Amino acid sequence: MIAWTIYLTFAGAVLALLLPALLARWVAWGATAAGFGISLLALIDTVDVFLRAMQALFSGPLADSCSGFPELLPTEKLVVVPVTLLMVAIGIAPQFLLNIFNSTVVRMAQLFA
Question: Which phi and psi (to 5°) does residue 39 adopt?
């Protein structure tokens, strides 16, 4: 699936050279967006396959004694969802958190220097 990203990027580059300037820009952006979308789907698919393999490898079949446990309760979801969204936000744009650490590291370096 990753090969489609390369094909689309190459096709976008070739079309950008052959087409008139205004149309080439839109074709290049479209090919880039399509390549990004396919890459994102491939990444999500890879994570899904990897997590299912790890679950099958380490968990095995569900024991009968554990079958009575319910899924997450609404109160547990109330805690898990914001924490998960915060993890995603830090993963996408960690700069706001790094700025806090940076000022602390600079102060500590001044103290020990």
Answer: -65, -40
Are residues 32 and 12 in contact, defined by beta-carbon separation less than 8 angstroms?
yes
Q: What are phi and psi of 65, to 5 degrees?
A: -70, -20
CA distance 105 to 113: 12
**What DSSP assignment string belongs to 47-103?**
HHHHHHHHHHHHT-SPPGGGTT--S--HHHHHHHHHHHHHHHHHHH-THHHHHHHHH
Distance of CA 103 to the CA centre of its chain: 28
Dump pLDDT digits (tens) for 16-55.
677 676 676 777 778 778 878 888 888 899 999 999 999 8
**CB-hemisphere CA count at 13 Å for 17?**
5
Using alpha carbons, list the distances in angstroms from residue 62 to 31, 32, 69.
45, 44, 11
